Amino acid sequence: MNNPSPYRCEDVFAVIVTYNPDMAVLETLLDALLPQVGRAVIVDNGSSADLTAWFEHARHGNLLLHKLGQNYGIAHAQNVGIEKLGVGPQAFILLSDQDSKPAEDMVLELRKAALRLMAEGKKVAAVGPCYMDMRQNNPPPFIRIEGLAVRRQYAEKPDSVVEVDYLIASGCLIPAGVLSTVGLMNVDLFIDYVDIEWGLRAKAFGFQSFGVFAARMEHSLGDEHVSFIGKQIPLHSPLRHYYLVRNGFWLYKQKGLPLNWKFVDGYRMLIRICFYTLFAKPRSRHFSMMMRGLVHGLKSRMGRY
Hints:
- By secondary structure, the protein is an alpha/beta fold.
- The protein folds into two domains: about 10-220, Spore Coat Polysaccharide Biosynthesis Protein SpsA, Chain A (Alpha-Beta Complex), CATH 3.90.550.10; about 225-300, no CATH class.
- The protein contains nine helices and 13 strands.
- Helix 7 (about 240-250) packs parallel to helix 9 and helix 8 (about 260-280) runs antiparallel to helix 9.
- The radius of gyration is 19 Å and the shape is globular.
- The model has no long low-confidence stretch (mean pLDDT about 90).
């Protein structure tokens, strides 16, 4: 950390949420990310292992550690991290999961794209990188829903920037001033759909999210994968599938969200429920948790399960 990286962006501040992290993977993330940002905070969501001893020997000069003591969910942890950093409206907030690995210039490319878009008069909600799940053959495209169709957007050129409805949280760069209008993350969701709900909410306020192809990141989706018609489909635990279904159906009830998004995502949700019931084991456990999530979502029974 004594030799500043040529890619460092001093006005970018990172929030890293951890929950029982693989410390070797976390160190890989920190080695890649910390040289790119002005300061970062780890918000630990009640990991079973005490990170204090590790942190005292980590020797990262621009890193803070804040322990919540128990698992309050990713949305709450992100909000705490943003508040702990206490940045001004002209700065940027970068959100990161514990197991992502940004390219050495990811933050710089995101910041450049955001500043360029804002100079063009765009109301930027957030910009996000093109990520690669190393268990897949190709990076997934950026998604945008047009009418009742899902439009998959690929790079026409290396520095292409495309409009999207929302971004995954990890690697997402948000102009801090936007948060005063749009608000922070919705803690009632706990986990899953947190990034989607925020992106759609930002869009309702007139802000637009963008995918930046020049910004790259490695990121894993799902706890495991199952092979299906030549594709590797991510699977989660029964509890995660509960949150996925619950939060989806809760959002379908909310006013102000695009009707076409509700139809498209609802259709995809039904496919997910069928797929997870058939391929996620134990099947009965996954199915029962998803059905419980469906009922809780319709009844607005939110928060931690």
